[in-house]
């Protein structure tokens, strides 16, 4: 412990041997705002200072671009925002300009401006403009990286000229968080990407070997005077119409509501969704799940994806818990059944979040959401009598985060999550975490420490659990390494608001990697790494498994083709304590090997291909398990506006052994063959930067067939063949599982921040016990199932309070 304390002290207080010489830009105020049209004929641009001499950081660090590919940036400001003009010299024939949707970089050149009003190197706001005119924006922090779920409303325009292209931007002050300042110094950085050659440059040089983000190397912006942050109040009223039909029944629904963003102070913002509407959320990629853990899905509801960097601290918030399926399940008599099936979600009544950070680096976040009471109807099949039972009461979800940043790259955080369910028949949950993320000033070394405690209020008492993480390593340079220890006791449970697949572990691990930062004769980049992990239970301290492996990846210098591979080995006996679904029982496997290779060709070409091939087996006496999997994904760039991507994945597992069910006290395993095929198509036609038509399609099929004889899991973790049991004893465990989802969407941004979206969705699902059925026959059966068809139309309109105020102000001045 004394040694570790000494190491932490060194991490925090190591001082850089040489200070970085930052570039400085002096901005001037304008009384005549430039027109944002991509034409630099405005008076303000004739005298503005020029920021130039951009320095490359990929693939060749420190390289100065030739004169005909140089970048020149000018800036100005007024009472409403900051203006940027960038002249990006290039040969137009070398430029790539694929039209994409917002935040999709695609195959386009881009220019980006990074602002940091606190000049703390940790809280950056990024604005990107592509050569196609499409925008992207993000917040960026060392702990969370770039968060493109954050969206702001700002202006930009592009123009292609004979010697390159031009970007003009207006960044309103409402998109930035800062206090009233008389003569501040802000952090500023400019970033340019030449897509054709994958070259990237910045105005203020960065040290790519440091492992730090671009925002760590901001230059300085001076000259801003007497800035007054505006009233940050925006309204997003919306209206939607949905018609949904399934199996001959149609339901029509109209919904209207309001989302609000309000700047409580200069640095803190309240986001609220009143009468939430998630009618246009996409489909989840559902798979056949034969394992002991739930499937995790990505968040697609905008309110839960935007501005959540503080709330993701410690991985204690799985946003899909809010509005998920009810936590209760009714006790049914033998002659009862649930009417209309068990609900898959609860309705969200409203949600708010407050977040921000002071100039001194103190971040505070508060989240609250309320879901409504969920009842189900139960019918007695004999008498026809109905009764109602609550499976989820009114529930309140809360998060409080306090995060103090320091040293330009370090932080300490306290986070608490709480779920309160109304009623004594349902459990409440509370989780608290204390987190440390420490790095020395040069970002050479880092350490991370976490301790978390969960507490559940159950019907029969309370349950308190504990978890911790300790990791440290070298973050920069060609050679990097890290080591970690993590543990959780048997009572640690965060699944009311977070997601945890398993507890009761005590694990150690380490990794080492090497990478290059200067191109070689044939390669733009190269990476090779290796790792090892030792796993055990916390109570009792029983060994569960050991694994080691490695990976390698590279990109060709001329072809820009990426390729690589990896392997993972689990030598000796591995003890699975979760597959049997009984505490203390385990299933043994021996000597696993998994390996794969992949390639990814240059996306800039009209045709590109991603492909992977893998093989898995084990070398256990009496076993002949093997798995072969591969995937192909060709990409067709028809033109700058139209791109089609097809994905095909195939996985065949032979003679796998896994849990089936219980018969009395016996844990039943079976040997099975499983084939999984997944087909997907994504296509987009972008008429311009504001109009797009997108298609996404997915067909997933998985068939599982068990051998007739099955196994009973022994107390020693081995499987014993028991001729007393066959598949018929457990009602035929074979599975044939298939889904079909199609989503066609048209989106039109008809005004800044305002959208009209029309969407058609089609869904089909089927599950049977015919595991021997072929894919083609399964597809025919799938089309014979009832299909769901949904059409929705939604309009969201952006209203800025300051614009309304100015309209009334101008009217009063003319009276």
How would you describe this structure to a colleague?
- It is a single chain.
- The protein is mainly beta and 815 residues long.
- It is built from four helices and 44 strands.
Break the fold down into its secondary structure elements and pairings:
Layout: H1 2-13, E1 24-26, E2 28-29, E3 55-58, E4 71-77, E5 81-89, E6 110-116, E7 124-130, E8 135-141, E9 145-147, E10 155-161, E11 164-172, E12 186-194, E13 199-202, E14 219-222, E15 233-246, E16 249-263, E17 268-274, H2 302-305, E18 336-338, E19 348-357, E20 362-371, E21 374-380, E22 386-392, E23 395-406, E24 410-421, E25 428-439, E26 445-458, E27 461-474, E28 479-488, E29 505-515, E30 523-536, E31 543-556, E32 562-576, E33 587-600, E34 607-618, E35 626-637, E36 642-663, E37 666-686, E38 691-706, E39 709-713, E40 719-726, E41 735-751, E42 754-768, H3 775-783, E43 788-796, E44 799-800, H4 801-814
Quickly describe the structure.
This protein is mainly beta and 815 residues long. It contains 4 helices and 44 strands.
Which features characterize this protein?
nine-stranded mixed beta sheet, 4 helices, mainly beta, 44 strands, 815 residues, 24-stranded antiparallel β-barrel, disordered N terminus, globular, single chain
- Terminus-to-terminus distance: 75 Å
Low-confidence stretches: 1-19
Into which percentage range does the β-strand content fall? Answer: over 45%
Rg over CA atoms: 29 Å
Global geometry: globular
Average pLDDT taken over every residue: 92
Would you count the extended β strands for me?
44
Largest sheet: 24 strands, antiparallel, barrel
Q: Percent of residues in helical segments?
A: under 10%
Number of DSSP helical runs: 4
> Given the helix and strand composition, which structural class is it?
mainly beta
């Amino acid at each position: 412990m004394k040694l570790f304390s000494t190491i932490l002290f060194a991490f925090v207080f190591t001082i850089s041997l040489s200070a970085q010489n930052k570039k400085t830009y002096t901005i001037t105020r304008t009384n005549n705002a430039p027109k944002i049209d991509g034409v630099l004929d405005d008076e303000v641009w004739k005298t503005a200072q020029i920021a130039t001499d951009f320095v490359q950081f990929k693939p060749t660090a420190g390289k100065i671009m030739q004169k005909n590919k140089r970048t020149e940036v000018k800036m100005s400001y007024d009472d409403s925002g900051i203006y940027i003009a960038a002249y990006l010299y290039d040969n137009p024939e070398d430029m790539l300009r694929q039209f994409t949707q917002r935040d999709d970089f695609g195959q386009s050149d881009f220019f980006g401006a990074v602002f940091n009003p606190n000049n703390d190197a940790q809280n950056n706001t990024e604005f990107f403009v592509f050569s196609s005119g499409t925008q992207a924006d993000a917040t960026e922090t060392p702990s969370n990286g770039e968060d493109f779920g954050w969206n702001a409303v700002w202006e930009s325009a592009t123009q292609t000229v004979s010697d390159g292209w031009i970007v003009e931007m207006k960044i309103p002050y409402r998109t930035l968080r800062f206090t009233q300042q008389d003569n501040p110094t802000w952090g500023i950085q400019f970033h340019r990407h030449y897509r054709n050659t994958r070259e990237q440059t910045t105005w203020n040089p960065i040290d790519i070997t440091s492992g730090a983000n671009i925002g760590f190397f901001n230059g300085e912006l001076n000259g801003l005077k007497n800035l007054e942050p505006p009233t940050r109040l925006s309204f997003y009223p919306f209206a939607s119409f949905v018609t949904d039909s399934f199996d001959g029944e149609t339901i029509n629904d109209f919904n209207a509501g309001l989302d609000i963003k309000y700047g409580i102070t200069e640095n803190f913002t309240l986001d609220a969704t009143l009468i939430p509407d998630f009618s246009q959320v996409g489909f989840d990629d559902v798979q056949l799940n034969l394992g002991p853990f739930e499937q995790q899905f990505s968040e697609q509801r905008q309110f839960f994806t935007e501005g959540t960097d503080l709330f993701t601290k410690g991985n204690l918030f799985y946003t899909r818990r809010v509005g998920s399926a009810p936590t209760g399940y009714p006790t049914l008599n033998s002659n009862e059944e649930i009417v209309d099936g068990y609900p898959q979600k609860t309705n969200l009544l409203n949600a708010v979040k407050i977040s921000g950070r002071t100039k001194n680096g103190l971040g505070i976040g508060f989240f609250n959401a309320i879901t409504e009471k969920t009842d189900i109807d139960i019918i007695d099949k004999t008498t026809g009598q109905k009764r109602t039972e609550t499976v989820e009461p009114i529930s309140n979800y809360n998060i409080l985060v306090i995060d103090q940043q320091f040293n330009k790259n370090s932080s300490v955080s306290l986070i608490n999550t709480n779920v309160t369910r109304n009623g004594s028949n349902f459990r409440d949950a509370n989780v608290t975490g204390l987190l440390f993320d420490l790095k020395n000033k040069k970002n050479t070394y880092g350490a991370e420490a976490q301790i978390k405690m969960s507490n559940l209020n159950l019907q029969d008492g309370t349950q308190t659990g504990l978890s911790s993480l300790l990791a440290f390593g070298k973050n920069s340079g060609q050679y990097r390494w890290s080591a970690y220890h993590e543990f959780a006791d048997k009572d640690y449970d965060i699944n009311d608001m977070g997601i945890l697949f398993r507890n009761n572990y005590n694990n150690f691990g380490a990794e080492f990697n090497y990478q290059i930062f200067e191109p070689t004769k044939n390669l733009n980049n190269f990476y090779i790494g290796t790792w090892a992990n030792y796993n055990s239970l916390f109570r009792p301290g029983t060994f569960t498994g050991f694994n080691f492996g490695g990976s390698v990846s590279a990109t060709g210098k001329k072809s820009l083709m990426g390729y690589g591979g990896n392997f993972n080995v689990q030598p000796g006996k591995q003890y699975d304590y979760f597959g049997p679904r009984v505490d203390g029982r385990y299933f043994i496997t021996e000597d696993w090997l998994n390996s794969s290779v992949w390639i990814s060709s240059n996306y800039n070409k009209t045709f590109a291909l991603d492909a992977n091939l893998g093989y898995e087996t084990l070398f256990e006496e009496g076993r002949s398990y093997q798995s072969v999997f591969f995937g192909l994904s060709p990409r067709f760039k028809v033109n700058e506006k139209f791109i089609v991507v097809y994905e095909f994945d195939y996985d065949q597992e032979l003679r796998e052994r896994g849990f089936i069910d219980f018969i009395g006290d016996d844990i039943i395993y079976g040997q099975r063959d499983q084939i999984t095929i997944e087909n997907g198509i994504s296509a987009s036609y972008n008429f311009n930067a504001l109009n797009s038509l997108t298609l996404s399609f997915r067909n997933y099929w998985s068939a599982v067939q068990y051998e007739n004889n099955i196994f009973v899991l022994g107390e020693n973790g081995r499987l014993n063949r028991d001729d007393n049991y066959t598949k018929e004893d457990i009602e035929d465990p074979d599975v044939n599982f298939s889904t079909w989802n199609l989503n066609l969407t048209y989106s039109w941004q008809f005004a800044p921040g305002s959208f009209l979206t029309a969407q058609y969705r089609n869904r089909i699902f089927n599950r049977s016990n015919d595991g021997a059925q072929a894919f083609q026959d399964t597809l025919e059966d799938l089309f014979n199932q009832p299909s769901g068809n949904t059409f929705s139309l939604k309009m969201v309109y952006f209203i800025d309070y300051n614009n309304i105020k100015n309209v009334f102000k101008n009217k009063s001045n003319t009276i």
